[in-house]
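[agent] plan:
  1. take the single chain provided in the ticket
  2. run structure prediction with default settings
  3. attach structure tokens to the ticket
  4. add a short note for the reviewer (M.T.)
[agent] executing step 1
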Amino acid sequence: MTSIGTGYDLSVSTYSPDGRVFQVEYAQKAVDNSGTAIGLRVKDGVVLAVEKIKHSRLLVPHSNRRIMTAGKHIGIASAGWMSDTRHLVKRVREESRSYTDVYKTKVPAHIIAERLAMYVQAYTLYSSVRPFGVSTLLACTDAKGPQLFMIEPSGYYVGYRGCAVGKGKQVAKTEIEKLDLDNMTVREAVKEAARIIYSAHDDTKDKLFELELSWVCKESNDLHVHVPQDVYDDAVQYAERSLDDDDDDNEMDDDEDL
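[agent] step 2 finished; step 3 output follows
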């Protein structure tokens, strides 16, 4: 049997004959068409980086952020529909506040990741709703140290040392796999995250973009904040130099071939 035909994608509660839920796959497609977002968990914290595509030169810089603080120690980066991201960030804030009110301590990373994933998965069960068109990277610190989770539109979640979502995820994953994350500091990770975002950016399709960087680490007192401006500037300069060096190497290879 084949799932090609009409009817199987009309409701999120309908399976195709080969076991696929098309509306969830469509939601994942919205994520894959978005700007790249990556997370790096290193020995002393977690770094989030996002490629925010600018569709107009008239947009105000640093507005409409794609990295948000969902709790004092919780940061969320996203790829997909921003309106869905804001809704999920609001949900995480409510869950975090509820846990703190009941247990008088900040919510552990795996608990908030599980609760968010269960909420996202609930929107794949009923025909009256649609799946969230967003993948979220959740950075957090707790008693076990820095933690990084990714929640997909299906509600599936898993912990990572490094992960990437969005249109440049394949290039980004390849670069992340080359890093020695267990022995890297957050300041080093910020530079590498910026370099990876610049490497994954496709100039032929999206000319303008804005880099967003945040961290949650000892240096920020275990609070999720955007990186200081001097750290941001150093990371951008490092990324641009690395990109220029790669271009020079490619030109030299072309000349040798000739």
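[agent] step 4 note for reviewer: The longest strand covers residues 45-53.
[agent] ticket updated
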